[in-house]
Amino acid sequence: MPKPMTKSKIVAVLAEKVEIPKKTSAAYLEALASLAHSEAKNGFTIPGVGKLVVRSYKARMGRNPQTGEEIKIAARRRLKFVVAKAAKDAALDIGGFGTALRRGK
After folding, report:
1. Any idea which architecture 43-105 has in CATH?
2. Residue ranges of the chain with pLDDT lower than 70?
3. How far is residue 51's CA from residue 43's CA, in Å, rounded to a whole number?
4. What is the location of CATH 4.10.520.10 in the chain?
5. Which of 62, 69, 80, 98 has the most crowded CB, counting CB atoms within 10 A?
6. CA separation (Å) from 22 to 14, 17, 85, 96?
7. In 10 A of CB 100, how many CB atoms?
8. What phi and psi, each to the nearest 5 degrees, are found at residue 67?
9. Where are the beta strands (DSSP E) in the chain?
10. Exposure string (b/e) for 50-83, b if CB count within 10 Å is 16 or more?
């Protein structure tokens, strides 16, 4: 199984594709991450990749697996990343699009 891309590899590939210096590419990546962090509470979408959404979960009853005792689990909000259909299809190579994307076409 191939290793995931590191930040430095992403910066290098982005700089090469867009023909900008690596320093500019790294700054762009940092700005995008910073924007995603600050806007996540309102929902943040990266077209073609996915979106960050806040999900609210109701309070519910749960069970302690060691003792079997019922416990109340409080309501909470969680951040979730929803993958865009185009990204999912490309990653799973549905419709043959994944090979075209990997070749840079």
Report:
1. Irregular (4.10)
2. 95-105
3. 7
4. 43-105
5. 98
6. 8, 11, 30, 31
7. 12
8. -105, -20
9. 44-46, 50-57, 60-63, 70-73, 76-83
10. bbbbeeeeeeeeeeeeeeeeeeeeeeeeeeeeee
Question: Are 18 and 25 within 8 A, CB to CB?
Answer: yes
Question: Which two structure tokens, joined as six digits, stand for 47?
Answer: 């077209």
Encoded tokens for 7: 């930040």
Q: What pTM does this model have?
A: 0.69
**Tokens, residue 2:** 């191939």
Task: Report the helix count and the strand count for the chain, using DSSP H and E.
Answer: 4, 5
Residue 30 contacts by C-beta under 8 Å, 6 or more apart in sequence? none
Q: What is the pLDDT of residue 15?
A: 94
The tokens of 90 are what? 């490309």
